[in-house]
Amino acid sequence: MRRPTNTTMAGTGSSSAGSDAKKSGVSADFLIESVVPFLSWVLGKLKTTPRSPDLSLPEWIRRSTSYQSNLFDFDESSKVLILRSAYYLGESLVRSFPTLSWATGNPDTAVKNMPVVTGFRYQMELAPMLVLENVFGRILSGSKSSADLQEMVSTWVEKVNPQNKSKRIRPD
Known about the structure:
The protein is mainly α. It contains seven helices and four strands. The chain has helices spanning 14-23, 32-45, 59-62, 65-68, 76-96, 128-141, 148-158; strands at residues 48-50, 72-74, 101-104, 115-118. Helix 1 (14-23) packs across helix 5 (76-96), helix 2 packs antiparallel against helix 5 and helix 5 packs across helix 6.
């Protein structure tokens, strides 16, 4: 059984990335309006390392443009920054909408035991780490643009229950 938590994730390291962003003139105040500028700042800091092709895959897959453009991994400092920005995304949503909270992912789904934000319509769960790894990866591979960060945030805000969309700021 999943247990929602009532604690916030603000103290999990997102604050150090937020401090670095603030030094660069980027607001990191956990308001929804600050998420896209913060994630854009993070995007500019990410670094990748090349990955060798998986020779067990058929050659027609290895030759595809989409496969070749994704032959990279994030370096270690980028993985930490993505983790911190994932908690920033999740915490910004939780602080902004009263029906959202942190929990562990549904054990019957792909987000099994991952930190997730719950309380969205249709029992959807946002796994911020998984979402940001994919969005940042797609942007860096060239299949998406940084403008898609706004689309991602807007999509999740739209999934908040309509009758519960009154924004609020939860005290730290």
